[in-house]
């Protein structure tokens, strides 16, 4: 299973023609591209469930593929359609809806991500508390050489400009405690995404994300 060239072509075209008239005239192309991504999501769910036993292998891939329609109600950008397909709802267990995996399919910008993006305040407090109590467990994951090679420096995500309440600036783990998100991502070229075996490659990479999700899940449970 792979992403077909026609899917990337559709996404490139809608980026250049982001209006309802063009979309309705090319709806068949959208439907074929979406079906490709749904099939891709089905294989990805199957492979990820082998890596992460907490991920529901029976998840309907149709429900995992996000809508292409943008929510423009509160956005200054009024273009109606996304120029990508997202595969979400790949959560790492029950009651941890913000901890899991996300697959992004976009020409020149495809990636797999894991962890927790901008957790809500109650979860954020629990994660910071776990870091304060058990930072060595997280550092053993994110400072591991292969993790850094695949995902880069974990601490270079967006951080608070000030010290979080309840912690001191001289805390040895302040770089982790100031994080607003706890996400790692790995990018893929279009050529990689269009090559057979890419789903298995993504799953192998996610095996390195799994320990991060375990740490976060334990923190909020």
From TrEMBL:
This is DUF2461 domain-containing protein. It comes from Mucilaginibacter ginsenosidivorans. It comes from the Bacteria.
